[in-house]
Design goal:
This protein is α/β, with parallel strands linked by helices and about 325 residues long. The chain has eleven helices and eleven strands. Helix 8 runs antiparallel to helix 9 and helix 8 runs parallel beside helix 10. The chain is globular.
């Protein structure tokens, strides 16, 4: 076996024959070449196998696997990760692409320069099903090193995966040996980023180095439709609540932490009522947080929420409180 490459580019794909050429071409166009390219097809029923074979015949760095049976999203990601030989791992989903020929070089440079960092992240261009740029997501501020535990807290407070999708991330393979947790379905990437950030720091590049595609056929879109994320959002908060309080220098029984618990339970219940769904998993996750908050504090926070909601809506209406910080139009 040849010497291990610096980077393993892992391309898991399922029924993305239409998008795969863009993804593969974007890797072959990189100015950093010390990498292996592993493409794994999860038993697609379209023409993905033919696309993969065609590109594998063109470049010796490409190796591929056509899975005999469908593994499912998380198991497939972990299969790919288990095959990686590089010091660094770069996932690129079959429907995404790298947006700059310098993407691998820039992220490798960041990890090489800072041994305390376990992952490198970039802004990303959002594209539609026809590869038309929609907007840029750039939510982590200035370039440079971000403390891992502080990033966990920022994501919890904002109730958003600020780090991004796997195609926007490069991480140290040694730090990610555990793999993605198969118990998670929608927030599986965010849970993995928290697992990594508990071990080290993050390097951020505000240059959009990848393009993330939004379309209705994505597994994450189907999960959203089935409300998988509601329970997982609550469980993630329950797991990291004490750590977030410590990082934020707040007592676990402080008003700020209680309001955080309240908002999570309140909006979970509101979404369940709107969509006429309240699964046992969501109910159990809500109860975990309610045990920490107590019904009395829930009622107090509810009163405060109702009293201040009109002011919050007014701030948004006049533009004092933007809804999507860190998102901007694509330059024309």
């Amino acid at each position: 076996m040849s010497a291990a490459p610096k980077v393993s580019v892992l391309i898991p794909t399922f029924n993305y024959a239409r998008f795969l050429p863009e993804a593969i071409e974007s890797v072959l166009a990189q100015d950093f070449t010390d990498c292996e390219i592993l493409i794994s097809d999860d038993a697609s029923t379209d023409g993905s196998a033919d696309v993969i074979r065609r590109y594998a015949a063109r470049d010796a760095r490409i190796r591929f696997q056509l899975q005999e049976r469908n593994l499912g999203m998380v198991a497939h990601w972990n299969w790919c990760l288990g095959q990686a030989r590089g010091e660094y791992v770069k996932f690129l989903f079959g429907d995404d692409k790298l947006a700059s020929p310098a993407a691998l070089r820039r992220q490798v440079g960041q990890l090489d320069a800072e041994p305390a960092a376990v992952l490198a992240v970039s802004a990303r261009i959002i594209i539609d099903k026809d590869s038309v740029p929609v907007e840029i997501w750039d939510e982590l501020g200035p370039a440079g090193q971000k403390r891992g535990t502080e990033m966990i807290a920022r994501c919890i407070w904002r109730d958003r995966n600020l780090i991004g999708e796997p195609s926007a991330v490069m991480f140290r393979r040694a730090a990610g040996r555990r793999g993605f947790d198969p118990a998670w379905r929608q927030l599986v990437d965010q849970e993995m980023w928290f697992h990594l950030l508990a071990q080290g720091d993050l390097m951020y590049d505000p240059e959009p180095l990848c393009a993330f595609r939004l379309h209705g056929a994505q597994q994450t879109a189907r999960n959203r439709d089935s409300h998988v994320s509601s329970a997982e959002t609550l469980l993630l908060l329950a797991r990291y609540l004490e750590r977030v309080a410590a990082i934020s220098r707040l007592r676990p029984d402080s008003l700020a932490i209680r309001r955080l618990l309240f908002r999570s339970i309140y909006y979970s219940r509101k979404n369940a009522q709107r969509d006429s769904i309240h699964s046992p998993a969501i109910a159990a996750a809500e109860q975990q947080l309610m045990d920490r908050l107590t019904p009395r504090w829930y009622r107090l926070c509810l009163g405060f929420h109702r009293a201040t909601k009109p002011l919050v809506n007014l701030e948004r209406w006049v533009g004092l409180k933007p809804r999507d910080q860190g998102r901007r139009p694509v330059p024309r």
